[in-house]
Queue: 3 jobs
Job 1
Amino acid sequence: MILLLFFLNIILVEANAIEPNEILENKELEVQARIIGKELRCLVCQNEDIQNSNADIAKDLRKIVRLKLTEGQSKEEIIEFIHSKYGDFVLLSPPLRFNTAGLWLLPISFFIFLTFYFFRKR
Amino acid sequence: MISKEIPEFSIESLNGKKFTNLDIENEEVIILNFFASWCPPCRIEHPQLLKLSNNTPVFGIAKKNEKKDLLPWLAELGSPYEIIGMDHNGLQSINWGVYGLPETFIIKEGLVKYRHVGPILKRDLEIFKNLTNN
């Protein structure tokens, strides 16, 4: 039982790379910062968000998110600022636009195609 | 960032004066190099920057570099820089969309025309010479 709890604790609790001196005093803003952090990609990592990465750029991005929150900027403004500096790649959820339509539509089209293929009448 | 206007900025420079976008946005062509004395590839590209500075003004932004570490490094290797901005907290690098060090921009009349990620090697000098019309 203890072993199970131990393993569940490891699996379910997300380790993040936020250092104590980064954490904002205002708890609401800190929560906002973490929500935003989950949507931003660590640009030099393999598919990590900025919360979970030790990379220098992730740390700096976390810093700037918190700084802008304390200045009163909104989540949308902050994400748009970072998006304007680093492009679509910094967004973990790529925007749905004409040139990203393929990204979104291909997997589901493939799945539908396969379903029909395997269930066709012989 | 390519063919985009350079961002507005105002940071302290190594000699204490302000370094701002006004210092570079009207120049015909300049090179802006993000570097640090603690960055080994920056040391590797330094000779190329010195060469380029003979024909094109080179400006630098030192990321997270203390003056006491930067000054001996420049004394040892030489300085190609007209002005060196000090980016102590890394926020200026984010302002320019920099991923890591070194990164170098060629800027013509306030527009970013080329971005070089990583050290400028000898074989990269050709591209730089062509783009700076030298």
Job 2
Amino acid sequence: MSNVPEDLLYSEEHEFVRKIEDDIIEIGITDYAQGELGDIVFVSLPKVGEEFDQGQMFGTIEAVKAVSELFCPASGEVVEVNGSIEADPAMVNNDPYGEGWMVRFKLGAPDELDTLLNAEAYGQHIGE
Amino acid sequence: MATGPLQYTPLYDAHVALGAKMVLFAGFQMPVQYEGIMAEHRSVRSDAGIFDVSHMGEFEVTGPDRNAFVNRITCNDIAALGPGEVQYSAMLTPEGTFVDDCTVYRFDDKLMLVVNAANIAKDWDYVVGHKGGANVRLKNISTDVGLLALQGPRSEEVLQAETPAALGAIAYYTFDTISVAGCQCFVSRTGYTGEDGFEIYCRSRDTETIWRALAGEGKAAPIGLGARDTLRLEMAYALYGSDIDDTITPLEAALGWIVKLDKGAPFVGRDALKSQKERGVTRKLVGFTLDGKAIPRHGYAVYHEDRPVDIVRSGAMSPSLGIPIGTTYLPAAVAKVGTEFEVDCRGKRIPAKVVKRPFYTEGSVNKGK
């Protein structure tokens, strides 16, 4: 069983969203996603200041056997990047919702969060 | 490609019970990983690991013409193979390209060909199709035979605990008929990981008994196909469907050493290879590494001096070396260590450089040979 915390929002592409402030969100990949990918060996993230639309690709995760793209759950501007996972990508496997977070965004359109899944809906989405 | 019903090895339930992630491979439900590819890879490099490779195919050849027949359908030389010895070889098309790579086991009274799971049907048709008037009996024993690979520096110790046979007497690329966990097996000192180890051929119904005797805490760690691939790639061992296929010859694939043009017996593909050798090959397999951390994946385009020359054949992050590694074919004139070229990693051209093969040189297979 994957860990799907109640207090987060989720995209169908297996990113999680944590609201930190009214207009700031933290994004990473879910426990289910890290389990499916297996050992993560490389994470390519955007730079602070880059802007993305909802659904746009913003990074890449390479696991030993698979490569996966990261999609923006909501549009906005990158305000912070977790540089330590670029140095130690295994943190994403070990603690996807904590030390393995990826980027923080300043939301462009906060309403877009309404289009995301809650924990229950995401749990159904992954069939658990 | 494999068609027909989904197939299972005798260990399917055991893999699922261990929590393996199962995938479809060559028509079989196979474990791609248990604990994780990196940890499994390290177990084999530093300790011992056990792989279920029962999906692989085995053909038995008996009858008075068996040696001449197998010498005609494989490119290595059976005459150089004594009873109890194993040989790496290949079956070729008339054009000299690979039908499959294989190993050949010579018994006193028979030969056994071991082939890739994905090619069993095609290889069987090939073998039967070349029988002609030869006085041989051919038997596809693939489903009757279970196959476990025990690999890693501690393999001998793990296996010795389950057999009365003196394993020290089984030298590299030889085999013997011995008892393991009370079951009769053919055991060869072979493998495809770069480590010391054994391949254990048993009756299908005995596979689980032997697996249970050898796998587990303090014995050998179960290893999936994921680590099998990274282990063999670190050694630059060829994988059919990636590094070699029916458009590539052994001379191009750096496997000229298994082609015995002068073995004194004609074989399928010989004329084409003789002529290719005289003309010189136009492309050659190389091993490479990439700048940075992007990982080359099978199918990515390869450019040399801005011209597309091939695709990435095999690619991975090397768990032992911590660098991206891969194989591709470059024009023969530039297929040498140090040549720089580029790999298109999802739209970005990443600088690549030819390095020596194998990528990994510390394996226990090299020790005490």
Job 3
Amino acid sequence: MRVKSRKVYAAVGAAAVAMAVALVAASLLGARGTSHATKVTGPTLPGAAETAALFRGIPQHGTTLGSPRAPVTLVEFADPQCPYCAQFTAQTLPVIVRDYVRTGKVRLVFRGLAFLGPDSGTALRWVLAAGQQNRLWNELDILYRNQGTENTGWVTQDLLDAAARSVKGLDLARMHSDQGSSAVRAEAAAAAAAAGRAHVPGTPYFEAGRSLASVRPLALKSFDPKAAAAQLDTLLKR
Amino acid sequence: MGAGIAAYLSYTRLAHTQILCTSGGCETVQRSRYSKLAGIPVAYLGVATYAVLLATVASVRETAAAAGAVVALAAACFAAYLVVVQIAVIHAICAWCVASDAITVTIAALAVLRLTRTLE
């Protein structure tokens, strides 16, 4: 091998190793710098007032929100740990609730999934337990407002207790007993089965129709509330 | 093909759309703490890397071949690191990412071969 070639190979190797080390170091530092857990600093969680205002006065029954006579049923498949679900809940849901659910045009049905990891299962059982007291949507909303980084153990019992205290009327002792109940397990299993039948590829995933029995996939074009509203308007006109 | 995969993964990030995934772990990986590098999604960096590699191929100069080999080898090492992270840390496999990683390793081998021929 010529001396020049040897020098080029050495330089290329050294530069590549240096670049790779820099990339890996940046990745590890970035991952470490990301927030892990949601800190519980008070008896209630941040956003409790906003959550209460969003759902105040709207009928809830189990996993459903809104009038049972609403002409359109919108089913949301979501994982409590899913960041995009939290984004949808923050950006789009308030408009849907204000303009469509509160006005009796749309009924929401929650199909809770726990596919992202152990924290998903813990949070989902807690949310479904809130459904036993007809406050599922409040509890889900407050958890999304205080969502931590997935699979970092952010769903602590302290956090869940604070989330329950943040929703007026929730019986905390009953939440503890209901989270492991057969009703909650059955609801989670039913949602997982429905997701399997619908071939849900990820969350949030939506179905809509005139009734729960006639729902069809609804691909929300974006989390822009106006775009979602336009799609719901189209469904209401049918 | 690698650029296409990276572009698709970038699109799903930009459009907040669901990833078509056979392994079931794509979303977990794409939403993990390791899916960004200095705040930039790794998928975007993938597109940029493929663009740089394409640019180096366009030139027949020795420096272009050397630069291509440096970028490709570094990308291959980083791809190997990402596969280890998926298996050992995130405990989920993103089939699209692994396919792109495999292509990156192949490109690195070809880039070294090209450099060898250029230096001969």
